[in-house]
Amino acid sequence: MSFFWIWDFIKPVSEILILWVIFYHVLVFFEGTRAFQVFRGISYLLILFLGAQILGLDILNWLLTKFFAISIIALLIIFQPELRQGLARLGQQHLFSIALAESEIVAIIEEIATAAYKLARQKVGCLIAVERETRLQAYIESGLDLDARISSELIQSIFLVPSPLHDGGIIVRGNRIVAAACLFPLSDNPSFSKITGTRHRAAVGITEHTDAVVVMVSEQSGEVSAAADGRFIPVDNRERLAGILKDLLVSDAKKRK
């Protein structure tokens, strides 16, 4: 009898904790996207709905019940890009944890960092996407197949005008540049200034749809930036850029192993 009494107490607590963990991870997943703002608004409505039930506000409770009943289709439409992104990640292989040793990843990072800062000194724009877990095949197909071993010199030659491949971005898979002149989706994050350049929006845009890591050089200012998870990461110098890439690629590979 005492066991059932204890379980009656533990059961609702366990359900609350499980729901809280799920709710937290959903918020983290949608953070930085348009859907995040909508999801936060719905969260407030859920709190209001629970309050109405506790306080016995029958009319408000009835209205909110009807609202949630007809909002499922609307939510599927609103969250469609994020749901597609999440489903696309299921079953993907962890590229760096399987294909490359840590020393190889570090060597690739050094080549990318060297190329980025050499291009930055000349104020030559570039866009480099490094594939991780989510395959970038759709973006590879938008460009031109290259399939060449990555090197600083090759990256520079691609982006230096008048190279026919300098427009768009390159995609790195493993230790190879698989494609150049690729088109990346532009971010429509409302927090960006209207004067934010196309290259900046493309750098963040692809990281909103995938888990790729992007290195970008601004043609106007010569500034080097990194982007991941739908946001820019401040970069002060070459060492900082290499450190960011190591944190995202090497550390992530160790964790997945």
Structural overview:
The protein is α+β, with helices and mostly antiparallel strands and 257 residues long. The protein has two domains: 2-89, no CATH class; 95-256, DNA integrity scanning protein, DisA, N-terminal domain (YojJ-like (1). Helix content is 58%, strand content 14%. The protein has eleven helices and seven strands. It has helices spanning 2-30, 34-55, 58-70, 72-78, 80-89, 95-99, 102-121, 137-140, 152-159, 198-209, 238-256, and strands spanning 126-130, 144-149, 169-173, 176-182, 213-217, 224-228, 231-233. Strands 2-4-3-1-5-6-7 form a seven-stranded mixed sheet, with helices on both faces. A hairpin with a 2-residue loop joins β6 (224-228) and β7. α7 (102-121) runs parallel beside α9 (152-159). The longest helix is centred in the first third of the chain and has 29 residues, at 2-30. It is elongated and about 70 Å long. 27% of the residues are buried.
Largest sheet: 7 strands, mixed
Counting DSSP H or I runs of 4 or more residues, the number of helices is 11
Shape: elongated
The H/E string reads HHHHHHHEHEHEEHEEEH
CATH class of the largest domain: Alpha Beta
The mean pLDDT is 80
Instruction: State the CATH topology of the largest domain.
Output: YojJ-like (1
Q: What class do helices, strands and sheet pairing give?
A: alpha+beta
**Helix content bin:** 55-70%
Rounded to the nearest angstrom, the radius of gyration is: 23 Å
**What name goes with the CATH superfamily of the largest domain?**
DNA integrity scanning protein, DisA, N-terminal domain
How many separate domains? 2
Low-confidence stretches: 91-95
